[in-house]
Amino acid sequence: MSERDDLDMMVAEFVLGTLPQVERDALQARRAREPELEALIQQWEARLAGMLDGVEPIAPGPELFSRIQRTIDQQTDQQHAVPEARSAAPDNVVSLRKQLTRWRWSTAVASAAALVLVAVLATQPEPEPQAQSFVAVFQHNDEQPAFLLTVDLTSRQLNIQPVTAEPQQDKSYQLWMVAEEYGPNPRSVGVIGDNFTLDQAALRDYDPETLRGATFGISLEPKGGSPTGQPTGPAIHGFLYPTSADQGKGRN
Amino acid sequence: MYSDSHQPDASPGATDYLSTDQEGSSGITRLLHRVAQQDRKAFAELYEATAPKLMATVLRILKDRSWADDVIHDTYIKVWQKADQFDAERSSPITWLAAIARHGAIDELRRHPARRETASNELDNIADHAPAAHEEISDQQTVKHLNHCIDQLEKDRQDMVRLAYLNGWSRDQLAMHFDQPINTVKTWLHRALKQIKRCLEP
């Protein structure tokens, strides 16, 4: 048997799966730097892949994709750490990044979703009386229909204030929340009324810990709120913008 | 995340991408190219369209849900990192994805053989190679051709090839089951693979 035949059979058995582990490992180490070997592997993969045709698809569990996203987020965070921001407010920035990436994923999946993004920030990592007060700024590009949201975790009271946001003809702003406990889809907190009012107790049924880890967003919806139960508004992007009495210092 | 009740419109690709026509396959190719640009939306769509097939492939080898979860997790991390290595000229996208998942599962199985309990109905499963109605790995012509070629093999060798490829059986397991020395199994496999290759040649 020629050397080429030997290699072809080794590759064939690798693809079939019966090549012993030591040889499997050696082959896999080689393939990245040997294009010809890689080509042989691809050919055998193509030959045998038809066997998978009869394998009936099985839906993965709902949590698995979130786990994959988290791993990718962690890797991304490690690659793109922002040193100057970290030195200014390390805890907040870290948690902000997490929440930002979570929204990236959420809006990625809810493709039609249009959200002004916001993070709710703990003012201090350790529990203190004022740590129960949270503030979030909703900012829309430079055009700025912006809101300020404050949440008191003790009483679970929220207060939403327009900063530069203006009422939109035949449209309603709607406040959403994403919390790990409730999966990746945004949950409606409430539709913001014509005078920018929202039931102050809209968060009363949520656990303070859940709220502390949650991310909030605002989308522009048809009058009266989203008809689908998920954000549907036009594609407006937002920036995260942490402000609070304690952590705002030192940031530009 | 992918429940129908929440996102009826967000999963148009779930069936299209795996369909037999050219457009389906090129849909996944396009997604992979976007994933190579670190496009998260494309990644979510790719997962939605392909994960059920890969999960079934891996689960068939490992027979353990949480173990399969780990392999699927690692598979999609690799896809995120290496999507730029996918070459549409050389491989169909679903074949490329399935290869990453299958090899991940087989590597796991070889490293931790004790974790998998041999299921008694494996031989029942392998006979079941009738083409499924929709989810397809490659076009039906190719599938039929391969099945035709495998069916030309002696019965034992047909089973060996399918048990190895689909269920992840090692030479040792095949030798035990078919009551043959390992070297005989190796020889049979080589003959079977060569025969398949010849049969598939145009």
SSE blueprint and pairings:
The complex is a heterodimer of chains A (252) and B (202).
Chain A: H1 3-16, H2 21-31, H3 35-48, H4 64-79, H5 83-88, H6 90-109, E1 116-119, E2 133-140, E3 147-152, E4 157-162, E5 171-178, E6 187-192, H7 208-213, E7 215-222, E8 238-239
Antiparallel strand pairs in A: 1-7, 2-3, 2-8, 3-4, 5-6, 5-7
Helix pairs in contact in A: 1-3, 4-6
Chain B: H1 13-16, H2 22-36, H3 40-62, H4 65-82, H5 93-111, H6 122-127, H7 140-151, H8 155-167, H9 171-178, H10 182-200
Helix pairs in contact in B: 2-3, 3-4, 3-5, 4-5, 7-10, 8-10, 9-10
Features:
heterodimer; A: alpha+beta; elongated; disordered C terminus; B: 202 residues; mainly alpha
How would you characterize the overall build of this protein?
The complex is a heterodimer of chains A (252) and B (202). With 252 residues, chain A is an alpha+beta fold. Helix content of chain A is 35%, strand content 19%. In chain A, strand 5 and strand 6 form a beta hairpin. The model of chain A is unreliable at 82-98, 107-131 and 235-252 (pLDDT under 50). The N and C termini of chain B lie far apart (44 Å). Chain B has 202 residues and is mainly alpha-helical. The longest helix of chain B is centred in the first third of the chain and has 23 residues, at 40-62. Chain B contains ten helices and no strands. Chain B is globular, with a radius of gyration of 18 Å. Chain B is 68% helix and 0% strand. Chain B has helices at residues 13-16, 22-36, 40-62, 65-82, 93-111, 122-127, 140-151, 155-167, 171-178, 182-200. The interface between A and B is large, with 51 and 76 residues.
Explain briefly what this protein structure is.
The complex is a heterodimer of chains A (252) and B (202). With 252 residues, chain A is an alpha+beta fold.
The number of distinct β-strands of chain A equals 8
Biggest sheet of chain A: strands, sense, closure?
4 strands, antiparallel
Mean pLDDT across the residues of chain B is 82
CA-based shape of chain A: elongated
Low-confidence region ranges of chain A = 82-98, 107-131, 235-252
Helix-strand string of chain A:
HHHHHHEEEEEEHEE
Write down the overall geometry of chain B: globular
Q: Please work out how many helical segments of chain A DSSP would assign.
A: 7
